[in-house]
Amino acid sequence: MNPSTITALSPLDGRYAGRLAALRPLMSEHGFMHKRVQVEICWFIALSDAGFAEFRPLTPGARTYLLGLVKNFSVADALAIKEIEKTTNHDVKAVEYWIKSKFEARPELKAASEFVHFACTSEDINNTSHALQLKAAREQVILPALDALIDKLRQMAHAYADVAMLSRTHGQTASPTTVGKEIANVVVRLAAAREKIAGVKLLAKMNGAVGNYNAHLAAWPDFDWEAFSRKVVETPEPLGLGVSFQPYSIQIEPHDYMAELFDAVARTNTILVDWARDVWGYISLGYFKQKLREGEIGSSTMPHKVNPIDFENAEGNFGLANALLKHLSEKLPVSRWQRDLTDSTVLRNMGVALGYSVLAYHSMGIGLGKLELNREGIDQDLDQAWEVLAEPIQTVMRRFHVEGAYEKLKEVTRGRTVQAEDLHALIRGLDIPPEEKERLLAMTPASYVGKAAELARRA
C-alpha cells in the first residue's frame, strides 16, 4: 500500500483510492488546473482569430504548441502552478503566469502574452472549468458506471423473468411476482433517472467581472463580444469548450444547472438505495446466495457468515454522496449580490460528492456479480403461502356475483396458516361455472404471477 493512502483524511483517497482512479484526474485540483489551462488557451487562440489588428492570427506551429500544453498537461505542471501560487496567493493568476512562462522561448507567443486572460475575471475561467470537469466526469465515469449497472440488472431481469417469488407488502405475504419483474422495476426507474442526468445542459459564461462585458467593450467598443463568447463556449473541443452558453449572469454563473445535475444524481442514488435495501432483504430471506471468495471472512467470531457487505457499503456511500449533493444543490445557486466566495470552497467538493457516488456504484456492481439465485428457497417460501390465492378466488367470485366474496375469503385466510386443501374445499362449494372451478383448482402460488414475466422481459 502507498503510505500516502493510509494517512489520507478521506477514504476516497485512502482505503478506496484504487476504485476512483478514473474520476481523480477529472475532479481533483490537478483536474481543475488542467481545465483552467484549457479555457485560457481556447480563449487566447480565439482572440487571435477575432480580426483585431493588435493580435494577428497565430501560426499553425504556435497553435499546435498551445494545444499541446493542454493535451500533455501533467501533475508536474500542476505542481509548478502551485509553486507560483505561493507567491501570487491567487490560483487563477498562477495559471496565467504559468502559461506566460511557457511563451518565453517562443517570440511569437511572447509578443502576444498580454492577451492571456484578456478581459477575463477569474470566474470566467473557473465556471467554464467546472463545466468541463462535470462534462468529463459525466461522460467518462458517471454515465458508464450507471450504464453498467443498468445492463447487469436488465440481464438479471430477463434471466429471471419466469422465476415466481412471493411478494411482501408491509412486510407481509402478498400476491406473487417474479424475480425478474422486481428487478425490471429497478431497471426502468434507473434508465429514466440516467436520462435525467444525461439531459442536463452544462452552462458556462465568459462575460467579465459582473456579467456585462465591461472590460471587453472598453478595449474594442464596436466588437460583438457576446457572440464571440458564445462561439468560444459552444464550439466543440479542442478549439472551444463544447458546452452551452449562459447569456445572463452576475460575476458567477448562477449554478442552477449544477443544482439540477446534482439533484438528478441524488435521485438516481436514492433509487439504488431502495434496491440495495431490497436485495439485502432477499439475501436475508434466502432468495439469493452469494458467491464465496477464497480467503474472505464474514465475521471475526462466526465462521459461517457470508455478509451482504457490498450492498451495505453501497447504501452507506450513497448516503454520504446524497448528503453532499443536497448541500451543493441548495448552496451553490445562492450568492450575495454579484459575488461572494462561499461557493468557491464548496465547489472544490464536487469530486467528493461524485466520488462517493462512484464508489457506491462500484460496490453495487460487485454485489450484483456475487448473487446466485436460490430456487429452492424461493419455491419453499411460495409453497408455504397459499393464502395469497385468496385474492384471485374472491375476484372470480365477484365476477359471478357471489355475495360476500371478500368476507368469505377473509374468514378462511386472515391471520391463519392456509393449506391448499382449505382453499380447494372452498372452491368446490362455489356456485360458479365448472370450468372456472377447474381453473382455480389448478392455480398455485407459483402460477399466480399475472403479466410479471412479460413485463420483466419488456424492460
Automatic annotation (TrEMBL):
Reactions it catalyzes: N(6)-(1,2-dicarboxyethyl)-AMP = fumarate + AMP; (2S)-2-[5-amino-1-(5-phospho-beta-D-ribosyl)imidazole-4-carboxamido]succinate = 5-amino-1-(5-phospho-beta-D-ribosyl)imidazole-4-carboxamide + fumarate
Segments forming domain Fumarate lyase N-terminal: 60-316
Alphabetical list of Pfam families matching this protein: ASL_C, Lyase_1
Keywords: Lyase, Purine biosynthesis
Protein name, UniProt field: Adenylosuccinate lyase
Annotated EC: 4.3.2.2
Similarity section: Belongs to the lyase 1 family. Adenylosuccinate lyase subfamily.
InterPro entries: Fumarase/histidase_N, Fumarate_lyase_CS, Fumarate_lyase_fam, Fumarate_lyase_N, L-Aspartase-like, Pur_lyase, PurB_bact, PurB_C
Gene3D superfamilies attached to this UniProt entry: Fumarase/aspartase (C-terminal domain), Fumarase/aspartase (Central domain), Fumarase/aspartase (N-terminal domain)
Primary role: Catalyzes two reactions in de novo purine nucleotide biosynthesis. Catalyzes the breakdown of 5-aminoimidazole- (N-succinylocarboxamide) ribotide (SAICAR or 2-[5-amino-1-(5-phospho-beta-D-ribosyl)imidazole-4-carboxamido]succinate) to 5-aminoimidazole-4-carboxamide ribotide (AICAR or 5-amino-1-(5-phospho-beta-D-ribosyl)imidazole-4-carboxamide) and fumarate, and of adenylosuccinate (ADS or N(6)-(1,2-dicarboxyethyl)-AMP) to adenosine monophosphate (AMP) and fumarate.
Domain Adenylosuccinate lyase PurB C-terminal: 335-449
Organism: Ramlibacter tataouinensis
Pathway(s) served: Purine metabolism; AMP biosynthesis via de novo pathway; AMP from IMP: step 2/2; Purine metabolism; IMP biosynthesis via de novo pathway; 5-amino-1-(5-phospho-D-ribosyl)imidazole-4-carboxamide from 5-amino-1-(5-phospho-D-ribosyl)imidazole-4-carboxylate: step 2/2
Entry GO CC: cytosol
Source taxon at top rank: Bacteria
Enzyme class: lyase
